[in-house]
User: Fold these one by one.
Assistant:
Number 1:
Amino acid sequence: MGVLLSKEAKEDLLARGYSRRQFGRISALLGLGSAAMAASPLLSGTAAAKSAAASPKAPIEEAQNKSGMVRIGSNECWTGPFPTAAQAGAAVVPLGNRYEPSNLREQLIQTVSQVEKVPETHILPWPGSSDPLSRTVVTFCSPTRGLVTADPTFEASWRTASWLGVKVTKVPLRAENKYVTDVRAMLKADPNAGIYYVCSPNNPTGTVTPLADIKWLVAHKPEGSIVLVDEAYIHFSGAPSAAKLVAENKDVVVLRTFSKLFAMAGLRLGLSMARPDLHEKMMRYDGLNQSGTLSIVALATGTASLTQTAAIAERRSQMIAVREATFAHLKKRGLTYLPSEANMFMVDWKQPAQTMRDAFAARKIDIGRNWPIWPTMSRVTVGSAEDMKAFCDALDQIMV
């Protein structure tokens, strides 16, 4: 179900090169909500739509069938939310009969502001980060101003742009420099784009774009465009955040999700940080405040998670130790992998990635997908020590 576009929104869209025929797609896009947006056949491509239509199994049955698998394919955290955060979430469940039982939304914003040193006026919570990601494409791109990203990177922005008829320019990562995003090549590839999207750490490579490079891009980009920085995996790397650029009122939108290190993928909570005028532009296409439709359990759990400084560092250290042990095993097997600063990595099998994915699946190991630019490489999530031992054992069986 779509949202009702206002007269002002329609006039803005027409002025930026969209046609009236595209209003329906934009309305549907904004009405999907964050969780549905990521999975919708509208945005996930024809192949995904056919796959969903062909499967007679209900989602719960599919989840049950997966329960026997080692799940290291979706970049989920290997454990649940921090105990203190889970307790905070559980404590508000008895208040679930009320729409607004307390000021939980305001508490989250205040906590983010304190932790990230960003004004409260620059913070919007969302049910995940897919909605604001797609919404920025609608807002700042158009048929005359495209989207520029690294390749490979998280594909959601590609799908949204393609659905809307927006030009998508993909720039290969810098192979000679640890596969980081090449911001100078991005600007050169399309000097008049609407969005320059930087995922850091990058999904699927786990490589960090130096903050100095992001600053350079912000300083040299065209007027009227934004730099969209997706920091879904920032807590796994400990790298400096682009949030400081938001605090400086730059043309920057920073996205966060609680789905990764905070282990809240199923609770759906995310954030966007940007100047108020940029947020206002993102929200002008519908009369509904999608940012306000938040679970009180997610709000309470997320707020408590942000202040767990020692637990965040400990979880990061646990992941790094398991990741490095896995890298050592891959090296022993003579396999090439990309050094990562997140809870995932790319490994090169020197053969079709799908063949290896099928081989692992036959051994109850669910590894991640590949990207078209790298057909022989798979993304693997760093799971628990037990998960990664199972991965390494299965690898040894496959490579006999």
Number 2:
Amino acid sequence: MTAHVAYTPKQRMLNAYRGIHSDRAPVAPEFWYYYPAKLLGVDMIEFSREVPFHQALKTTFETFDCEGWGVTSAGIPSEDVEASGSEQWTDEGRLLVRGTVRTSYGELTSATLYDRDEPAWAVERPIKDLERDLPAFEHLTLADPEKLDPATMLKARDEVGESYLLEAWLGVPFFDYFGSSREGGFERAIFDLIEHEQRLEALRQRHTEHLCRLARVLCERTPFESFFIGCSWSNNSLLGPQLWRRWDKPGLTAVAEEIHRHGRLLHVHFHGRCMETVADFAQIPFDCVCPFERPPGGDVATMDDLRECARLLDGRTTFNGNIHTVETLIRGTPDDVRREVGEVVTAFAGSSRLIIGTGDQVGRETPEENLHAMIDEAKRLTRRG
């Protein structure tokens, strides 16, 4: 009977997260920044500062007639905080945005560089001296979730409707939370884990408590079916499985348990290599993980790797991704794209926990015919009834 049911893109995604068959498997290229900006005809500065993200994704998914996911969030106000900033155009045509935050625990400064062709990046991070800056950073970033007003998130959800799965953004794992704000970046943050383990363990616990409370507030005040946790450095390629299990897995487990207590779903982004921790994903359990990248960025390379992912996920966690965004979607032919789609579908044959997605973000250089080949082939191979 499923073939006669008219499923929406959002329903197909949710069914895949829950392990329920739809009329076919969802096909969800990760349209994030580059392709929506290209489709809308704006540069990356205008896209990031002026275009509503959820609306840009809606236009993109509807244009390609496929499923997908995106995120929305709302800031939590902090007491006794004053913020100021300045903007300056550089000689290279970039926009330098500086910010200063004054709290009762001290002052934090940071800077971000915006480029017309690339997403913005940090050029100055707020935590420069651990002893001096950490109290102010905690006060600013771990504010009471009870003060959150979800009105803008609910408005975005209503505007997206059934076009795709809009998820509530919770944040990032602990190492990304700390490391991305530490002057010196990844390397300095790794040394901090060694040199200040006790202090950072206490911060990790407070970060976990904050994410769990935020998840609880959002579950109680909104109807969002699914929640999202992102990642930058918290993966096997950079942090490694041992440190990931030490610093990030406990918090992710606690958040998953909190979300599941409310009958909601958790989607986790895990860049890069992942084969050593696929079993952990199902153990936690996450409801969906992406993007299971192929080499050189990832290590899900062969049919044997795909089948091993299916075995380790054990019908408990949904697989989303694996179509190579560079070698196949940008440099390959439509036949190359169809071949990779076929590999993923074959490895997960019969499984309801499959989303055919991309190995991370779709590049702006991607030929449109390759995207159509991915979407059409996924629909053809997984159509039921």
Number 3:
Amino acid sequence: MQKITMYCTAFCPYCVAADRLLKSRGVDTIDKIFIDKEPQLRDEMMSKTGRRTVPQIYIGETHVGGFDDLSALDKAGGLMPLLNN
């Protein structure tokens, strides 16, 4: 299974929803980068993704986007192939 990296904050409901969705698809470990604990990481996230909202999710080297993007990918049947690539 691909490595999952998620930029998030401690109290973000969309981050929690993304975590739940990924775990329901068999993901054991999510490397969480808490941008509220280390503010310079928000700049890193924005530089990498061009977005300022959380979560920002990477599956392997692929930037999936936020929770809405992750959910749409799952509904379209693209999440599992990406996770297992």
Number 4:
Amino acid sequence: MMQIVIAEFMDETAIASLQRRFAVTHDATLAERRDALLAAVVDAEALIVRNKARVDAELVATARKLRVVGRLGVGLDNIDLTACEARGIEVIPATGANALAVAEYVIGTALILLRGAYFGTAAVGAGQWPRAALGQGRELHGKTLGVVGFGSVGRATARLACALGMRTIGFDAHVPSVEAIWVQERTLPRSLDDLLREADVVSLHVPLTSATRGLIDAEKLSLMKREAILINTARGGIVNEVALATALEAGRLGGAALDVFETEPLPPGSPLSGCPNLILTPHIAGVTRESNVRVSTLIAEKVAAALDASRPSA
């Protein structure tokens, strides 16, 4: 019986569907126990991970029977694609399955940061009444959303924004401005610099590559409107955290929401700690009860299909 190792959390129903046909090892702590992970994959034909487990050259060499890697998400920076390709190992991301969850996170945090009122909870609870100070919030309707990266998540975010009356603009280095998708999604293509100058809310949806590492640095932040909002649900290395903290502390940015960081968990003493108008969450924008079911079901089905296709014909 073919063996599947699941190294991070996955929906139980999806796991059960695999257990009916394959020998499944599921241990959500394997991603954090490197030696145990390497031992577990020695005879595995398939490996399913999220973003913690490093599927690098060492693991690929150790997993001598590995045929497929399922990624419970869309980012592939924790997977050595070159090493997998050299071995003929298929890598399957859950493209689109968590797009709605991320899009709702973006819109929700944009609403909170623009309105500003929710940061007054402690004061109101303590008997204060900062009505004048908290009555200067802004509405989402009529604002411009700039989407950096126009894949499935960026497009889902643009659709939600349009439904709430926002105007949407976008930049994607791999989607030419003449592509029909811009018109279909009611989004105007822009250069990155023009998008940063024009948008009231900037949302990042690009993978972490050599081209995008440090993409949003001090220079790019200086192009943004003084009251603009920056939201990063992509990868931490895309935003220069020191530059962002400096901009927030100086009041040169209206606010920011970060779900991802250069180092995760965020280390003590980070320049982001204590910054004003900043929402920090632990890499959960794409993780909801519903999205976990969608992502897990999709990967279970695709991994099973890939293993079936690799079986020797009778």
